């Protein structure tokens, strides 16, 4: 069996140790005589898994006790719609910071359910920069401020948590959660689709402060209310048990690897390798994102001659790399460098990039 | 490794052949050098998997061309809420046939989004019967009629598709889809949580007639609109790729086993074995569901002396059976007999039941 060097943006590489464990336990998990997928979520074994997984996440992120942890479904996109239903009253307003395609989509989906105001945007720079904090026009009456700490398509990342005063800060951390230590207490709500740094697609992790769950509910079905899910330990209906299980294995793997500080150090090193290769290529490769906001999770680059794109992709694939094609909205290349992407994979990538440039430069 | 005899109600047993295939392909699916979970849903390989999976389902169920097939998230419960948002106008009405805890919940969740009228209910018999069709008070102006062909908790099943005239019939088939051949053309919409007869939890299969997708949309986010999902081949956002993959493996397994006619024959045989054992136990075991509506998927039973329940569960577990405890709402026992539960497992169960009765009768 040969494993590819996987730089997919999401669904993305999982830790090989996690996959091997899932493989070994596929027909008989935890002595149950069944796969974890074949067992009731309300049975003793799965309930213990769920509780242990939450404890592990709380340890990793040092989550304060006044925050609930939820394991939901629907992808982050569904929560673009559900968040305003839960956090804002009908006719209420919310502020959106738009720094890329995902935060723009978050605002446009929310707009069906709240007066979603764009308080700041970097669309005029084609999302290659972050709008400077002093230029944000925040509304102190907003129900919340929403932003996307890492935009995967360009690879544009906030390296500081913005101060938005007393209005709760809501963050779509799909593509950078668990990539580094985080001060959860700065947020009202953090949510993340699992398929980048947590596990398989089809699972959404949510960390939400108690007072936001106490906001008066709109007349929406119970299944759409976060407070109901919190009161039912994310089991108002059958959860994605496989996703929850793999998230637990991933959290365990992160702990074994040294926790979030170790991840942050590794991710900084990995992304520096790629950016150094780009910047040292004498213009063969280029990344136009504002230096201070380059993402540690997604390094995008274009080739000096777009005609080489298809050759880069074909040769990289032949050399055992997958997932390097940039998002269709921007083209070019993108190397996603999530936790499960090993330094060895990045070593191989930058070596390939240098060789390719030497051959075609 | 020893596999248990798994009678769980859901998440439920998967075919062992499916699990073994998933196990073998865990680190390298389809020559990709990655798990299917680690690949983009928009990549060529996964797109082919998605298309092949849909084709296989269309063959199995002989789905007419004017029906779309969707692979969604959220569990059936989320769609209790989403169906009225999509099929009824604001201020519209819909009829609900209430024959158990799930259809009752479907109506109560829908009631936040439509005038959900109970057109018939068997709650007065504690859901042990089906309300006779002539007593249904259907509203010809309703946007749809919703029913639950199989109620898993009691094990109460419609063995005929009810005629509801020109109003579209909507069915939550979570617990009996693919258990037998089906005339899809009788329905406006069929939906099913995957975790009983399709695959792991976290996936919802939906089969919906084109004209229902053309109903004018409410002002809800795009991600909540079925028409948008249909227009985007269920990839408006990242789908549950692992669930989709396992559904495909399960459809393939069903075809290899002889298709839905073979499943129906096997399920009839399996359920007859359990009901015959109950009925032939001289009252040691009892099933109080109306004979004509006994479920082929979930056979519930109580012991003549409730004090024996815990002993039955402990001894059955020691003998290698799991998932036999009845739903907390009704107590007693329940053997779920979905497609993946082998006749050999049912043989073992009825033998255990007879032995237990002999020892404690």
From TrEMBL, chains A, B:
Keywords: Amino-acid biosynthesis, Aminotransferase, Cytoplasm, Pyridoxal phosphate, Pyridoxine biosynthesis, Serine biosynthesis, Transferase
Biological role stated in the UniProt entry: Catalyzes the reversible conversion of 3-phosphohydroxypyruvate to phosphoserine and of 3-hydroxy-2-oxo-4-phosphonooxybutanoate to phosphohydroxythreonine.
Gene name of the record: serC
Species whose genome carries this gene: Luteibacter yeojuensis
Subcellular location: Cytoplasm
Cofactor binding, note field: Binds 1 pyridoxal phosphate per subunit.
UniProt cross-references to InterPro entries, sorted A to Z: Aminotrans_V_dom, Pser_aminoTfrase, PyrdxlP-dep_Trfase, PyrdxlP-dep_Trfase_major, PyrdxlP-dep_Trfase_small
Modified residues (N6-(pyridoxal phosphate)lysine): 196
SUPFAM superfamilies: PLP-dependent transferases (SSF53383)
The family this protein is said to belong to: Belongs to the class-V pyridoxal-phosphate-dependent aminotransferase family. SerC subfamily.
Pfam families linked to this entry: Aminotran_5 (PF00266)
Keyword Cytoplasm: yes
Name the record gives this protein: Phosphoserine aminotransferase
